[in-house]
Amino acid sequence: MRISELYKNRFEGDSVSVSGWIRTLRCSKSFGFIELNDGSSFKNLQIVIEEDKLENYSEVSKLSVGSSVSVKGNLEFTPEAKQPFELKASEVEIQGVSAPDYPLQKKRHSFEFLRTIPHLRPRTNSLSAVFRVRSMLAQAIHRYFSEHGFIYVNTPIITGSDCEGAGEMFRLTAGDPNSAEKREFFGKPASLTVSGQLEGEDFAMAFGNIYTFGPTFRAENSNTARHAAEFWMVEPEMAFAGLKEDMDLAEDLLKYLIKFVLSEACDELNFFNSFVDKCLLERLNNVADNSFVRITYTEAVEKLKAAKKEFNFPVEWGIDLQTEHERYLTEEVYKRPVFVTDYPKDIKAFYMRLNDDGKTVAAVDCLVPGVGEIIGGSQREERLSVLEERMEELGLSQEDYKRYLDLRRYGTCKHAGFGLGFERLVMYVTGMQNIRDVIPYPRIVNNLV
Ligand code: 4AD
Ligand code: MG
C-alpha cells in the first residue's frame, strides 16, 4: 500500500503493509515512533513500535535516518494528535540500513546544498514535491493534446539542421578523435537539436495538428536561473492557423495545466505556497480565471519607455526584451501573463512570417510573472519567395534547408506553432526560483555532476 492511498482512503483498523525510508525516529526502551516516507506524497506515516510487539525491537529502534523498512500493522485513528492516524507495527522488516553519514538529517537544507547531492535530494520534502508536480504536468500535457486531437510526434534528437539559425548547437563527435573523418556523425556534421519545430512543421503538413515533447539542447553560455543547456520543450504546430489561433491555444493550454495542478496537486501547492512563494496560490487562481493580456512589441516598448523606473538595459525600439523588462510588464504593469507579438524581424528567427510593414514578424512570446518568457512561437513564413529572400539576407544555405523549402513548394499553407519551456512551466506553477531545482539532473554551464 502507498502512503498517499492511506491518506485518501483511511482504512481504519485494517491491516496494512507499507515500505519506505525513515525520515525520523524517536525511541525509548519500550516504545518509539518512526516517521516513514515512501515518495507517494510528502506526508509521512507515523509508525508506533513497541518492544513487546516486535521481535527485533532493539535493532529497529537503533536504525538511522534514511534506512529502508517494510512495515505491517494496524491503522488507528488518532483524533487528538497532529497526524490523523498512525500505524501500530506488528512486524518491521529491515531492508537496508543507512550509514551514519547520511546527509539528509531532519532540518531544512538549502537548495544550494541539495544541488550537491542530486542522487539523494529527491528524498526531501521540497524536491519530491517538485518532481511529483513535474511528472503530473507531463501527463497533463499529453492528456490535453490527446483530448484536442493533436498527434504526438517524436522528432529527432540528433539533427543536421539548426532550427533557430542561431548557431547555438552542441556538435556531435564520435569514434577516434584523431581521425578527422570519423569525428563527425558517420562523416557528416551533426548536432543535438535545439528545437523539434522544423520536423514538427513537416508533420503538421500531413496531420494538421501535432505536438512534440522532448529534450532540446542549447550551447548558449547563459549562466542564469532560467537557462539550462538541456531542457524539455513542448511544441505544438497547427496547419491552417495564424497567430491568433496560436495564442488561443497557448492560453487554453496554460490554463488547463494550472487548473489541473490546482486540483490534483493541492498538497504540493499548499506546501510551495507556505515555504517557497507566499503569493503562489493567489497568482495561479488569478491566471486560471482571467484572460491574458495581448500587446504588440511596439506597445510594450512604449509602456517600458513610460515607466518611472530605470532599467539596467535601456529601452529602445529594436532591442530584445531583457528579463527585467519582461518582469516589469508582467509583475508591475499587468500582474498576469502577457502575450507580446510582432517583434522586429532582426531579433527573431528566419522562419517567422514577415508582416506587411516589412519590419516586424508574426512572432509571439508569452511572458509570465516570476519567470519571464515561458513560450516563444510564431506564424511561419509559408510564402516560398519571401522565405528564400529572408534566408539569403541571413546567409542561410538553401541546400541545408531544402526539405523545409519543399514544404512551401508542395501544398503550402498558413500555419503556426510555439515552444513551451517545460522547466519554466514547472518553475511557474511551483514558484521555484532556479531552473536547477526543477530538473532531476540539471545540465547547466559548468555543471555536469
Ligand atoms: O523561444 P524559443 O527559442 O523558441 C523555439 O525554439 C521555437 N522553435 C519554438 C517553436 O515555435 N516551436 O524557445 C521556446 C521556449 C522558451 O520560451 C523558453 O520557455 C524555453 O523554450 N527555453 C529554455 N528553457 C530553459 N533553458 C533554455 N536555455 C531555454 N531556451 C529556451
Ligand atoms: Mg524565445
Automatic annotation (TrEMBL):
Signal peptide: none annotated. Gene3D superfamilies: Bira Bifunctional Protein, Domain 2, Nucleic acid-binding proteins. This is Asparagine--tRNA ligase. The keyword Magnesium does not apply. InterPro entries: Aa-tRNA-synt_II (IPR004364), aa-tRNA-synth_II (IPR006195), aa-tRNA-synth_II/BPL/LPL (IPR045864), Asn-tRNA-ligase (IPR004522), Asp/Asn-tRNA-synth_IIb (IPR002312), NA-bd_OB-fold (IPR012340), NA-bd_OB_tRNA (IPR004365). Keywords: Aminoacyl-tRNA synthetase, ATP-binding, Cytoplasm, Ligase, Nucleotide-binding, Protein biosynthesis. It is found in: Cytoplasm. PROSITE patterns: AA_TRNA_LIGASE_II. The lineage of its organism: Bacteria, Bacillati, Bacillota, Clostridia, Monoglobales. GO terms for molecular function: asparagine-tRNA ligase activity; ATP binding; catalytic activity, acting on a protein; nucleic acid binding; transferase activity. Its EC number is 6.1.1.22. One of its GO terms (cellular component) is cytoplasm. PANTHER family: ASPARAGINE--TRNA LIGASE, MITOCHONDRIAL-RELATED, ASPARTYL/LYSYL-TRNA SYNTHETASE. It comes from Monoglobus pectinilyticus. Homodimer. GO terms for biological process: asparaginyl-tRNA aminoacylation.
